[in-house]
Amino acid sequence: MNRQSEVKDIVPDLLNKIESTYKDLVENDEVLSSLLKKNADKLAKAQDEQDFAAKIAECLSEAYKEHLSGDTLPNGQMYYNIANRIIPPTMTGSYQQISDYCCAAQSALNENAGISIKAQRAPINTDRINGIVNRVSQKPFDEIDWILKAPIENFCRSIVDDHKKANADFHYRSGLRPRIIRKTDGKCCKWCLNLAGTYEYSPGMDREVFRRHENCGCTVEYDPGNGSKRRQNVWDKSWSFVKNPNTKKRFRFRLDIQFFAGKERAEKWGDNWQEVDLDEFLERWAKNAEVRETEQKVEYQTPGSPYIVSVDKNGDYVRLMDTRLPGKHKEKKYVDADGKDAHNVVENGKTRGRSKSEWQAATHFKFKKRR
Ligand SMILES: [Zn+2]
Questions:
Q1: Which of 40, 124, 139, 306 has the greatest number of C-beta atoms within 10 Å?
Q2: What distance in angstroms lies between residue 13's CA and the mean position of ligand 1's atoms?
Q3: Ligand 1 centroid to 328 CA: how many Å?
């Protein structure tokens, strides 16, 4: 008799308990109930899908935590043949619930956009499940139990991303021009900040936009309503404007497309802009800041400080604002990298006003390249 078969098979009982606790947690969770209601009312947004996935992950981790420990497992270890009969079925259950949620949300989005295409279901990522099974079975459980927390959340959130990708891909193949919008939750890292923005979907695009590190709360959005159709119009129009020599009109039109404004500005003027290291810049001007996010910017402001560090999500640049400067227009309140009013420049002992491009150069700072 080998050691494994001496051990009583604890798996069926354990699996039962985990599944029943999980079911209880999910069914009695108020956040999940209200998110499900939103979806039933066809009102769920990308953020709701992320919140749903995160909450499902929390319930699963909680159910694991309640029944799995060094004490309940033989020799304090979740051997492979235990892990492999408990983790895959339970994670698959969560996948199914999240996938159902995403498909219902996507159906509503398609319907609202007047696209009669069935929502696509993204396949389950079994590699990730196998990875978790392997890792959790390799060490004493009490040393490795964290695997059943952040990696589970990451797995669940990624299901939402996979659905965005699958549906954008299907729409692309159907002749639409999907756009993927990645937003940070404003609390995430520089990597995510750099990834935030709008991307034209194509099967060969850089897949980094769909990647998600642990503890990342960012959203990857694909809404055919403000994606394919409207963006397609945007492109149609801008093509016709390119043909049209009426550049003034084109410029005004461009200003309306706020998504592209930042990036364009950085490309157009960026050469003579100063470079700053974003971490150092934030440390200097917005230590322990509160973070706000708008469609185009992430703003950092230390409570009580007059300074706001404003990071453009599409253009890879940052600006600094002194809210004490007079004037109604925000644009007039931007200052140089040392926090000084940048309207004038002293040249040969004389003070004169800066030209438009000198002003741009003095108040926009590019990020120093990562690595
Ligand atoms: Zn993130």
A1: 124
A2: 38
A3: 34
